[in-house]
Amino acid sequence: MAGGFAERSDIVTDGFATALLKSMLEIPSPSYAEAELAKHLAATMRELGFAARLDEVGNVIGLLDRGPGPTVLLLGHMDTVSGQPPVRLSNGRLFGRGAVDAKGPLAAMICAAARAHEFRGRLVVAGVVEEETPGSRGAMNVRRRQPPPEAVVIGEPSGWSGVVIGYKGKLDVRYRVECPATHPSAPQPKAVELAARAWTSLLDILGPEASHLRFDQPGATLVSLVGDLTSATAEFSVRTPAGFDVEGCLTKLREQLDEGVFEVRNAVAPCRVRRTDPVVRALSHAIRRHGGVPTAKLKTATSDMNTLAEVWRVPMATYGPGDSRLDHHDDEHIDLDEYMRGIAVLSDALLELSALPVTAPGGTTR
Question: Engineered SS bond to 74: which of 109, 192, 238, 303, CB 3.0-4.6 Å?
Answer without folding.
Answer: 109
